[in-house]
Amino acid sequence: MSPRTPAQRVRTTGAHRARGRAETNALDDDATLHAMGYPRKLTRRFKAFDNFAISFTIINVLSGIFSSFGFGMNAGGPRVLVFGWIGVSVMVLFVGAAMAEVASAYPTSGALYFSAGKLAKRHKGAWSWFTGWLNFVGQIGGTAATGYAAATFIQAFLALQWPSYVPTAHQTVLITALIIVLQGLANTRAVQLVAVLNRISVWWLLIGLVVIVTALVAVPDQHRPVSFVTHFANNTGFTSGLYGGMLGLLVTSWTFTGFDGSFHMSEETVHATVNAPRGIIRAIGWSALTGLVLMLALVTGIGDYDSQAGSAAPPVQILIDALGQATAKALLLIVIGAMLFCGLANLTSNTRQIFAFSRDGAMPGSRWWHSVSPHTRTPVKAVWLAVACSLALVLPGWWSHTAFTAIVSVNVVGLFLAYAVPILLRLRLGDEFRPGPWNLGRWGRPVGVVAVTWIALSSVLFMLPQAAPLTADSFNYAPIALAAVLLVATVWWFATARRRFQGPVSYGRPDEVAAMDLI
Q1: In this structure, what are the phi and psi dihedrals at residue 107, rounded to the nearest 5 degrees?
Q2: What segment(s) does the record annotate as region Disordered (predicted)?
Q3: Does residue 198 contact residue 53 with C-beta atoms inside 8 Å?
Q4: How far apart are CA 215 and CA 226, in angstroms?
Q5: Helices H, strands E: what count in the chain?
Q6: Does 4 reside within a domain?
Q7: How many Cβ atoms are within 10 Å of 206's Cβ, its own excluded?
Q8: What is the per-residue pLDDT for 14?
Q9: Using an 8 Å Cβ cutoff, are 167 and 196 in contact?
Q10: Are 149 and 408 in contact, with CB atoms under 8 Å apart?
Q11: Which candidate, 452, 371, 461, places its Cα nearest to that of 412?
């Protein structure tokens, strides 16, 4: 056998070191999970990029901005769209940083509800219960809303391609159902497939954004001047410009949801105590930067403001007027693809929350929903429960779009309130909080205070009327939907749950649960 060259020896040594680091990380990850009382059931195949990718895909600036840009044109206009994006992005970074610190300390699929139960000094079961159900309902609403948005844009494309095609509510519901079922099928496969699709989604988003921005900058003969970003418009029906502009901040808030996905994938992420919190921060940071570029491109590409603001899909109309119908249709396919990736990642995060919540016995039929397929090492039954619940939320859209909106309106409010609870409890714990490897140090408390304050203010905005005059169609049903969720959770808690659910459970000592590992 010929002797190895120095280069070969270096490569071999490097490979051994890489394998050694991976094995050490896996042992550390498993030891952390065992210390929290859980055996390992899921395959740990998510790398740092994969963990970032799921939150970046769920935030999804293409989907979020194209879905809500028209609302912003009428609620504050370019001034709020651009500067509101910057301001709210900074506030969301505070929320993400505070959540990331908690994620480093408690890297489990249970994420928010688990950390709430661990951080509470008293009534651990109640804190965990309400956080879990807010998170569950918010994520189910997010899956349904994203699928519905994709179906709406698919029909907009079909109407452009075939002018005789007339979208209907029934068609929208059927297409939404098909999308969610296909996303469920993808999630039943091995976690490697989900990781690959999320990697593709990142490049789809980034390359698609570059293509759209380049087209808006290079193709039109005329653009709005840079000073147009200060233009203000209030077509909400409310006489107060300040109120109308405050409502416009919701465009950014609607977009920045779902970054808890990195937290929920902790048990499938290598070196989760560091990679999960980094995934949260990187997803928010990159979304803030890329979203600002897209926002500026759309604002400077606006033509006839009143006509486009009053159209059925303002950003699509901007593309048509600036680039022509053929180019607009091609770019619309990029946006639709981004929405489909967004829904897929959202459903993945949703199923991990269901898996963990059931593992602790908090859901009816818990023993079903936390089982893992021996072939794919994924919680297949939890996937189909998430699909069924999302379809149940979509179904009222068959009869009334207003009814559908009322049901999914709790999506953002529920999620952000679930984000706030563990951050608030971490603040109450003070110096007793034991941080993980990724932490904010002495900045943890001020960052947490800003995060909770912003969530409180933005939640109030989400529940205020968003258009005048108030009618059955324009009424904001978010407060009613949120009250209904909290009422059901409260009645359920006092009726039975408080006697059987005491918060996150432990399956035994670290050595005992290590023996229960399925992988």
Answers
A1: -80, 80
A2: 1-22
A3: yes
A4: 17
A5: 23, 0
A6: no
A7: 15
A8: 43
A9: no
A10: no
A11: 461
Which of the residues in the chain have pLDDT under 50? 1-27
User: Could you tell me if residue 124 is inside a domain?
Assistant: yes
- pLDDT attached to residue 4: 46
User: What separation in angstroms does the CA of 136 have from each of 95, 279, 292, 411, 414?
Assistant: 19, 21, 30, 9, 8
SS3 state at 46: strand
CB 36 within 8 A of CB 108: yes
Q: At what angle do helices 124-161 and 478-492 cross, to 10 degrees?
A: 140
Secondary structure of 205-219 in the HEC alphabet?
HHHHHHHHHHHHHHC
Query: Could you give the CA distance from residue 240 to residue 237 in angstroms, rounded to a whole number?
Result: 9
> In sequence order, which residues have a C-beta less than 8 Å from that of residue 446 and are 6 or more positions away?
none
Report the distance separating Cα 173 and Cα 391, nearest Å. Answer: 9
Cβ contact 278:438 at 8 Å: yes
Domain count, the chain: 1
pTM: 0.90
**Treating both helix axes as pointing N-terminal to C-terminal, what angle do 6-35 and 272-300 enclose, rounded to 10 degrees?**
100
User: Is 10 inside a domain boundary?
Assistant: no
The pLDDT value recorded for residue 475 is 85
Under a CB-based contact definition with an 8 Å cutoff, are residues 355 and 364 in contact?
no
Q: How far apart are CA 50 and CA 357, in angstroms?
A: 23
Beta-bridge partner residues of 46: 269
Cis geometry, peptide bond prior to residue 364 (ω within 30 degrees of 0): no
- Kind and range of the H or E run holding 143: helix 124-161
Q: List the one residue out of 216, 290, 344 whose CA is nearest residue 61.
A: 290
Give the whole-angstrom CA distance, residue 424 versus residue 181: 36
Asked if the structure places residue 117 within a domain, the reply is: yes
Range of the domain at 169: 44-514
Going from the C-alpha of 450 to that of each of 79, 95, 231, 261, 429, the distances in angstroms are 24, 8, 29, 22, 17
Query: For position 519, what pLDDT does the model report?
Result: 58
The CATH number of the domain holding residue 181 is 1.20.1740.10
Q: Residue 184 has what pLDDT?
A: 94
Residue pLDDT, tens place only, 50-66 = 999 999 999 999 999 99
Q: What pLDDT shows up at residue 81? A: 97
C-alpha–C-alpha distance, residues 5 and 482, integer Å: 67
